[in-house]
Amino acid sequence: MSQTAPVEVPSQPLPRPRNGVGTSALVIGVLALVLAVLIAFAPLAVILGAVAVGLGIAGIARANRGVASNRGQAVAGLVTGAIGLVLSIALLVTVGVYLNRHSTELRDFRDCVNQANTAAARGSCADQLSNQLNY
To answer: What is the pTM for the complete model shown?
Structure first.
C-alpha cells in the first residue's frame, strides 16, 4: 500500500487577475486606429491613441508583476494606439499643409460663392477652384 501526500488547500483563494487596463488599452487603441482615418475625427484619435499607449504600458507592467494575465491584449493596445496616434498626427499635418498651401484659392472660392446669385454662378466658382487646384 502506498501513501499519498495530503493535499493542502490554500487558506485564501488566489486573487483574480486584474485585466481591465490591458483590455481598455486594446479597445481604445482599435478605436483610435479607426478614427484616425476619418479626417473629422483625427483630433480625437490623437487623444485616444495617447491614452491607449499609456494604458498599454500600464497593462504590460501589470502583466510583468503578475497582477494581470493579458499581456497580449496590453501589447496589442499599445501597438494599435501608437499606430492610431502616428497615423492621425500624419493625417492632420498633411491636411494642415494642404490647406495652408491652397488658402488663397480657397479664400477666392469662398468669396466667389458668396457673390454668386445663381446655381450656375456657383458651379462656375467650383470649376474655377478645380482649375486652380489642378494647375
So the answer is: 0.77
Residue 109 within a domain: yes
Residues 42 and 82 in one domain: yes
Q: 74 and 115, same structural domain?
A: no
Q: Which residues of the chain have pLDDT under 50?
A: none
Using CA atoms, how far apart are residues 68 and 117, in angstroms rounded to an integer? Answer: 65
* pLDDT of amino acid 1: 55
- For residue 133, the model assigns a pLDDT of 85
Same domain, 56 and 84: yes
27 and 56 in a single domain? The answer is: yes
pLDDT for 4? 73
